[in-house]
Specification:
The chain is mainly β and 130 residues long. It contains 1 helix and 11 strands. A hairpin with a 2-residue loop joins strand 6 and strand 7. The longest helix is centred in the N-terminal third of the chain and has 7 residues. It is globular, with a radius of gyration of 14 Å. Bound molecules: zinc ion (2 copies).
Length: 130
């Protein structure tokens, strides 16, 4: 069991077990919305996830309306996985390592590849951005 939440504490969540997938993304949208050079997120089965507190969203990107912390992607009915920004987990380091990296063509030259992670120049799946 892992717990996480936003910076101000208004949103709290928990996830059971290990994620099915961990990814680092260097795309332009992830840069903009995080204000950083990349994001790291993981997918858990929706039934392994519980949340308390209010979440606002922009284009499916869920965040705390009070402190602005990016937490997760809001799921649609029928989704089997939930995407969570693992920087929002309570325990650091979180000991979850990316299985792959996407939008590697936008990775900064001073960021080394994750050892052993699959490298995708652009998106690995359809829904990923730019
Ligand atoms: Zn907050
Ligand atoms: Zn991205």
């Amino acid at each position: 069991m892992r717990t996480g939440g936003c910076l101000c504490g208004a949103v709290r969540y928990s996830v059971r077990g290990d994620p099915v997938h961990v990814r680092r993304c260097h795309c332009a949208n992830c840069r903009k919305e995080s204000g950083s050079a990349f994001t790291v997120y993981a997918h858990w089965p929706v039934e392994a996830f519980e949340v308390s507190g209010e979440i606002s969203s922009y284009d499916g990107r869920g965040f705390c309306p009070r402190c602005g912390s990016r937490l997760l992607d809001t799921s649609n009915p029928g989704d089997t996985l939930i995407e969570i920004r693992i920087g929002s987990l309570d325990e650091a380091p979180f000991q979850l390592k990316p299985d792959d990296e996407i939008w590697v063509k936008r990775r900064e030259s001073w960021i080394p590849p994750v050892e052993g992670a699959a490298q995708h120049d652009e998106s690995a799946t359809q829904h990923d951005e730019n």
